[in-house]
């Protein structure tokens, strides 16, 4: 399969990380996670919770810019080695999504944006369950209202593909793989 970049994004708790990991496995792509990169850059153990002040510390605008730049650096290295890249992050700002678009165009790489569409009720249930687990993500129910308020939903002109965040992961990943293969292999 020709190297490509796939961005799997959405609200915290939408199921994007599970779908992104499964997509990377199914396509033999490198999995590039903002949660992992953020913790490594901050020298915080992966399952240790960071300070949960929305928009501050390792979640400040400045730190987030560095995380997204590192994701692009890793995606470029992946493509240079002939391996697809799957990026997993909220990409809550259109400007961040546009940066990926610009980079993929410079790299002449096929690009796919998959928005994981999940109901708020399911997200809230997932975030509540997450409170009791050791997970990499710091997304929690107490910061969800601010996150949702600041999230810039994808617009029609962004050419986004919506995938289900509810139901089986296999179904969503099957849809994503079919779309990627169809675009890369043609009719």
Question: Top keywords for this entry?
Answer:
187 residues, alpha/beta, Rossmann fold, 7 helices
Topology:
Blueprint: E1 5-9, H1 16-27, E2 30-33, H2 34-42, H3 61-80, E3 85-88, H4 94-107, E4 111-117, H5 120-130, H6 144-150, E5 161-164, H7 169-185
Parallel strand pairs: 1-3, 1-4, 2-3, 4-5
Helix pairs in contact: 1-7, 2-3, 3-4
Description:
By secondary structure, the protein is of the alpha/beta class. The chain has a single domain, classed as P-loop containing nucleotide triphosphate hydrolases (Rossmann fold, 3-Layer(aba) Sandwich). The protein contains seven helices and five strands; from the N terminus they run E-H-E-H-H-E-H-E-H-H-E-H. It has helices spanning 16-27, 34-42, 61-80, 94-107, 120-130, 144-150, 169-185; strands at 5-9, 30-33, 85-88, 111-117, 161-164. It has a five-stranded parallel beta sheet, sandwiched between helices. The model has no long low-confidence stretch (mean pLDDT 91).
Uncertain runs are none
Task: Write down the overall geometry.
Answer: globular
Question: CATH class, anyone?
Answer: Alpha Beta
CATH architecture heading: 3-Layer(aba) Sandwich
State the end-to-end distance. 15 Å
Order of helices and strands: EHEHHEHEHHEH
Annotation field: number of helices: 7
What is the arithmetic mean of pLDDT?
A: 91
**What is the percent of helical residues?**
40-55%
